[in-house]
Amino acid sequence: MRELAEETGLTGRVDRLLGVHAGLYTINGVSIHGVRLLYLVDVIAGSLRREQDGGTDDAGWFGPEALEALSLSAHAHHALALLDH
């Protein structure tokens, strides 16, 4: 929940675990096995804003029809597929 607050200005409460996404990545020539826990979260306070230190490209609310135009990570696509079930 700390990352949510830092990157978006929002405070949330975990509703439930959506799933797990794992993948192999190469960063600066180093292979990394990443495992991400994906949660469904309810926003309970705050105002949506871009991260103060600039580590996140942007923050916004998007409808399903706008998602195809966005450059999403593999784990974001995985999370969205879990929401469709």
CATH homologous superfamily?
Nucleoside Triphosphate Pyrophosphohydrolase
The largest pleated sheet is described as:
2 strands, antiparallel
Average predicted confidence as pLDDT: 90
Binned strand content = 35-45%
Return the CATH class: Alpha Beta
Count the beta strands. 2
Instruction: State the strand order across the main sheet.
Output: 1-2
The H-and-E topology, N to C, reads as: HEEH
CATH topology: Nucleoside Triphosphate Pyrophosphohydrolase
CATH architecture: Alpha-Beta Complex
Number of helices: 2
Shape: globular
**Count of discrete structural domains:** 1
- Structural class comes to alpha+beta
Low-pLDDT stretches? none
Task: Please give the radius of gyration in angstroms.
Answer: 14 Å
Which bin fits the share of residues in helices? Answer: 10-25%
Short account of what is shown:
This protein has 85 residues and is an alpha+beta fold.
